[in-house]
Write a structure and sequence with these properties.
Oligomer: heterodimer
Shape of chain A: elongated
Number of helices of chain A: 0
Order of helices and strands of chain B: EEEHH
Radius of gyration of chain A: 23 Å
Strand order of the largest sheet of chain B: 1-2-3
Strand content of chain B: over 45%
Largest sheet of chain B: 3 strands, antiparallel
CATH architecture of one domain in chain A: Sandwich
Order of helices and strands of chain A: EEEEEEEEEEEE
CATH topology of one domain in chain A: Immunoglobulin-like
Number of helices of chain B: 2
Number of strands of chain A: 12
Distance between the termini of chain B: 53 Å
Structural class of chain A: mainly beta
Distance between the termini of chain A: 39 Å
Helix content of chain B: 25-40%
Radius of gyration of chain B: 16 Å
Number of strands of chain B: 3
Structural class of chain B: alpha+beta
Shape of chain B: elongated
Largest interface: A-B, 19 and 17 residues
Chain lengths: 188, 77
């Protein structure tokens, strides 16, 4: 059996409000927006509440959010580009960013970024990874640059090799004119 | 008439004392919300609060007890 709520011309579909529980044993089709957790349905898609109601169950999707954040090297560095955006699905955050340093200032990091939109989980997880989509004008020649989101924090540590080797290390790779795009994926 | 408004619409405190702040940038038409985007930042225990919203500052100062600051510092060493 299927239930179709589509507001088709000529068909009057009364609004139904039920404060109890409903069970649909067949399929359920909603032609416009649907909402859960008290959210207001939009023109399409599935809306989640602006403030997520966390559910511990491993099979329950309890949050969705899109937004922006501002990646930073700290200190008084100036930027031609300093942008970031994120999508959070459940406890997983995917954050991307673009940095183009004009002038590296005092008090700024040359190997780490700050400003992630959510603090990473701090317990039970060893670490989270990321990658560069592009980089140019690094202050140091490198191979195999990697990104790691620090547990329990909103920082990204950049590590790399400066020559063929077996273990990445942190180096001062950021300087005036350094330009890069990156993405990290982590849990909260 | 279209207007823009920014509000701090969510302040969360995580287990380690970090304060997660969400700013909602609203687009209003005749006072009714027709669009919204979010921007987030997070304050770790001990971070500078000088440029923060008053509510954010008040919550951070209440949460960041010496014990919380010491515990967070220990995790970063």
């Amino acid at each position: 059996m299927s239930i179709i709520l589509n507001g088709t011309t000529g068909v009057t579909t009364p609004g139904v409000t039920n404060s109890g529980n409903e069970t649909v044993t067949g399929t359920l089709q909603v032609s416009t927006g649907a909402a859960v957790g008290g959210a207001t349905p939009g023109a399409g898609g599935l809306a989640f509440p602006a403030t997520a109601v966390a559910v511990a169950d491993a099979n329950t999707l309890d949050d969705y959010e899109e937004g922006t954040w501002t990646p930073s090297l700290g200190g008084n560095t100036t930027y031609a580009t300093q942008t970031g955006s994120y999508t959070k699905v459940g406890r997983q955050v995917t954050a991307r960013g673009s940095i183009n340093v004009t002038t590296l200032g005092t008090g700024s990091s040359v190997g780490a970024l700050t400003g992630l939109p959510f603090a990473a989980a701090s317990a039970g997880i060893a670490g989270f990874s990321g990658f560069f989509g592009y980089f140019a004008a690094l202050a140091t020649n490198v191979v195999c640059p990697v990104l790691a989101v620090d547990v329990g924090a909103t920082t990204i540590t950049m590590r790399q090799l400066t020559a063929a080797g077996v273990t990445v290390t942190s180096n001062a790779i950021i300087g005036n004119g350094t330009n890069f795009d990156f993405t990290v994926v982590y849990f909260v | 008439m279209l207007t823009e408004q920014s509000v701090i619409d969510q302040i969360e405190v995580t287990r380690n004392g970090s304060v997660q702040v969400r700013r909602a940038d609203l687009i209003l038409k005749d006072g009714a919300e027709i669009g919204k985007t979010y921007h987030r930042h997070v304050l770790a225990p001990g971070d500078d609060l000088s440029d923060q919203d008053a509510k954010v500052t008040a919550i951070a100062q209440a949460v960041w007890t010496p014990e919380v600051l010491d515990a967070y510092k220990a995790t970063r060493e």
